[in-house]
Amino acid sequence: MHTTNHRTHPAKEATAMLPSRSRDTQRGQILVIVAGGVITLLMLAGLVLDGGIAFLNKRDGQNAADTAAMAASRLIAEDQTDAAISYQSSVIYSGIDATVDANGCDGAGTPCTWEANYVDKWYADLGDVTNTGVGIPANTVGVRVNVNRRPGTFLARLAGIQSWNVDSHAIAVAVSPTTAPPGQLLPIALKQNSGDPYVPGQVYDLTDGKDIPGGFGYISWDGSNDPNSLADSICEPDNPAFTMPTTFTGDPGKSNSTGVRACLDYWINTGQTVLIPIYSTVVGPGNNAVYTIVGVAAFVMTSKGQPAVDNIQGYFVEYYPFSAVPGGGGVPDPTSTMIMLSLAQ
Questions:
Q1: Higher pLDDT, 304 or 216
Q2: pTM (two decimals)
């Protein structure tokens, strides 16, 4: 019996194996591409998530720096204008420390530290604000406060980034006016808080609409309910002269006009001190609402709600020291010892 041995030629054998190796190579390349894509997506997600955390911490740090600088400058103003007061640096230090604590820089959550130095009218450094018994340096008109927050990261840890280093700073000064400032009384009524007086440096809601249906704290100097008139009164304060207590009608509705938003943005962006009427009571609904104005307080506006302007915020500076308000707002006595506080940078 003749048996024929069939042997596969080596070249054919190698050729037969090529498709299998090619498929293995393609699978390996796809795995590399997929892995690279997943890593890229994770990095992008980390940029969005952790970048958003850094942005929020920048905002919180800036609020802390702004309010602390204003609080410290207010104490410096008291030291300058009251002969019975002679503050030590520890008083300014404590004022800053209490304010940054109240604004989330208290060591209980995100790591946060601060430092401050005195400045003159040219913002030149006059030395550190220390928790010691030394006096306030000569020629001091304000302080520079630097706040550092270090929020941890999540996905950015994949790139070796364990935390962000977020710095914020603010300079506030207290100077005596040489002339009466332009009108600064805005038609935004704030409820009297006699049981718990407003605290300097603390942020408050200036409009909340809780006292009358459809009201958001806006008042009308002339009794009209026109968004354009309201915008004009916010941009270029045109209040009538009055002596407290007095009454004004409300301007109901959210008054969400472009002009109102733009005028509010002006005061928010410039950081200038504005005057806000304080009311004791409000009676009547809608167009018939009547606010009883019993005082005026100085605030610095910090933000407004969007898209409807129904949550304006600002931090309290001080109570207006006069019972009469001249037409157009401002300070009635330019020769007084009243100190104007403002954010410089």
A1: 304
A2: 0.48
